[in-house]
Structures are given as structure tokens and as C-alpha cells.
């Protein structure tokens, strides 16, 4: 039986208008659900080939910095979120002794909870983002790559690199209609002990089904400049930039 909401499926990836066969779910929608569930699981468990990704980053933007969180394996990362929030001692020492310090923004990338998101969207988004930040007059550190990182890791990295702002691009927890969402978390004045209330988040960055790269990059620039000017961030920093016509 056709669901009266079926035509609305053209405007959303949400599971609406699925229809039914008698009192049962249609086979097509059941298989689609099972596929989406499998894709979400794969996105979470997939290992990130950081070395290969680093070579691609360096091909476009010069030397990158690869560090390690205390979550040495994917299983440990998922079972112990706290370990993904801290760097291994050797990695922290390497950043502290690095010459790549004093930039406006510590630019960080981690696969987080979706390796698929990073592999699909990180490079094209970085191209747009780097261009936008440069146009805003903001300097960025070499890109810091962190397998199995959590958002709070951006504070430790920002402090080590003596940056005014930390920006981490990270794979978001997959949903059943979006296994490839990339998130951007902005922290003005990174400091130990910051909570999520001190951060600004742009979620669901993924063309063509989510927030487009240009809009996300423009909002990051706007929030960064405003946050630095006012000395505030997180819930105190509002995005009141004009919407596109």
C-alpha cells in the first residue's frame, strides 16, 4: 500500500512514506534499512589509513603533523571515550617542541566516530576552508592528523601549539540516513578543562545531502573573527550572520 507521504521522500533522507504490504513492512524498505545500518556500523569500525591520508594532505598543503591519542585501537577508542581526549606523551612533547606554533588557528582532523566521513568529505572541505580562512586573514597551523580522537583533544593541541583558536574537523556518530557526516568544532582560547559549552559546532557537513562546504567555511570564518573580537565562544557566541538569499 502506497503511503500518502511518499511524495515527500524527494525532499528528505528521513525514513518517511515507507508504505506497507498489509500489516508488514515492504521488502524494499526493510533491505534499505538493513543496508543503512550496515553502513553506519562500517563507518564506526573502519580503520583510518592515516599515512595514506597524510600523503594526500601534504600533496596539497605541505607538511602535516601526525599524532596519536591514548586510544591506540578502535576497540579501546569506543570503549574508553576518555582516552580519545588526550594525546600520548610522545605526541604531546612533539607538538610542544614543534616550530609550528603561534598561528591563529590550530587546524586538526580526526576520523572520530566516522572514518567514512573523513575519507569522503575532509579533503574537498579543507580546500574550501583553507581558502576562506586565508581570505579572512586568519593563519592556520599545519594540519594535525589524529586517529581515534575526540573533540576535547583540540584543547590540548591548541595549547601545545600556542594557538588562539582550535578547530577540529571530526567524523560524527553515524545515523541511519547519514553515515558520512563531518562535524567542525571551534574553540576560542583553548584551555584545559573546557566543556562543550565553550565550543561552537557546525554539524552534518556533507555535500550534497547536508551543509555545503562553502556555507560551513563561511560560518567558521564568521564565528572565529567574531569570537576573537569579543573574546567569547561557545554558548555566548551566536551566529547572527545574514543567511544567503
SSE arrangement:
Blueprint: E1 20-21, E2 24-25, H1 27-45, H2 50-61, E3 65-66, H3 74-79, H4 89-96, E4 105-110, H5 115-135, E5 144-146, H6 153-160, E6 165-171, E7 182-188, E8 199-205, H7 213-230
Parallel strand pairs: 3-5, 4-5, 4-6
Antiparallel strand pairs: 1-2, 6-7, 7-8
Walk me through this protein's architecture:
The chain contains seven helices and eight strands, in the order E-E-H-H-E-H-H-E-H-E-H-E-E-E-H. It is of the alpha/beta class. It has a single domain (50-236), classed as Ethanolamine ammonia-lyase light chain (EutC) (Rossmann fold, 3-Layer(aba) Sandwich). The strands form two sheets. A six-stranded mixed beta sheet has the order 3-5-4-6-7-8. Strands 1-2 form a two-stranded antiparallel sheet. Helix 5 crosses helix 7 (213-230). The radius of gyration is 19 Å and the shape is globular. The model has no long low-confidence stretch (mean pLDDT 91).
Low-confidence stretches: none
Could you state the CATH homologous superfamily? Ethanolamine ammonia-lyase light chain (EutC)
- Quaternary assembly: single chain
Number of strands: 8
Number of DSSP helices? Answer: 7
Total tally of structural domains: 1
Please state how the strands of the largest beta sheet are arranged side by side. 3-5-4-6-7-8
Instruction: Tell me the series of helices and strands, N- to C-terminal.
Output: EEHHEHHEHEHEEEH
In helices, the fraction of residues equals 25-40%
CATH fold naming: Rossmann fold
Characterize the largest beta sheet: strand count, sense, and whether it forms a barrel.
6 strands, mixed
From the N-terminal CA to the C-terminal CA, the straight-line distance is: 40 Å
From the 3D coordinates, which CATH architecture would you assign? 3-Layer(aba) Sandwich
CATH domain class name:
Alpha Beta
How would you classify the helix and strand content by structural class?
alpha/beta
The percentage of residues in β strands lies in: 5-15%
Amino acid at each position: 500500500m502506497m503511503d500518502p507521504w511518499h511524495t515527500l521522500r524527494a525532499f528528505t533522507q528521513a525514513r518517511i512514506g515507507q508504505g506497507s504490504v498489509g500489516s508488514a513492512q515492504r521488502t524494499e524498505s526493510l533491505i534499505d534499512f538493513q543496508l543503512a545500518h550496515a553502513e553506519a556500523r562500517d563507518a564506526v569500525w573502519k580503520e583510518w589509513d592515516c599515512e595514506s591520508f597524510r600523503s594526500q594532505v601534504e600533496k596539497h598543503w605541505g607538511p602535516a603533523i601526525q599524532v596519536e591519542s591514548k586510544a591506540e585501537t578502535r576497540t579501546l577508542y569506543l570503549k574508553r571515550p576518555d582516552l580519545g581526549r588526550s594525546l600520548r606523551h610522545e605526541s604531546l612533547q612533539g607538538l610542544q617542541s614543534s616550530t609550528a606554533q603561534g598561528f591563529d588557528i590550530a587546524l586538526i582532523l580526526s576520523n572520530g566516530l566516522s572514518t567514512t566521513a573523513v575519507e569522503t568529505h575532509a579533503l574537498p572541505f579543507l580546500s574550501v576552508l583553507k581558502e576562506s580562512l586565508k581570505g579572512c586573514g586568519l593563519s592556520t597551523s599545519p594540519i594535525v592528523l589524529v586517529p581515534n580522537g575526540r573533540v576535547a583533544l583540540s584543547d590540548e593541541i591548541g595549547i601545545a601549539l600556542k594557538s588562539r583558536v582550535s578547530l577540529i574537523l571530526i567524523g560524527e556518530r553515524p545515523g541511519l540516513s547519514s553515515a558520512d557526516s563531518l562535524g567542525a568544532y571551534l574553540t576560542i582560547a583553548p584551555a584545559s578543562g573546557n566543556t562543550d559549552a565553550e565550543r561552537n559546532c557546525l554539524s552534518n557537513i556533507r555535500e550534497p545531502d547536508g551543509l555545503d562546504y562553502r556555507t560551513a567555511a563561511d560560518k567558521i570564518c564568521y564565528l572565529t573573527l567574531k569570537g576573537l573580537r569579543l573574546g567569547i565562544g561557545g554558548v555566548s557566541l551566536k551566529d547572527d550572520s545574514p543567511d544567503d538569499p
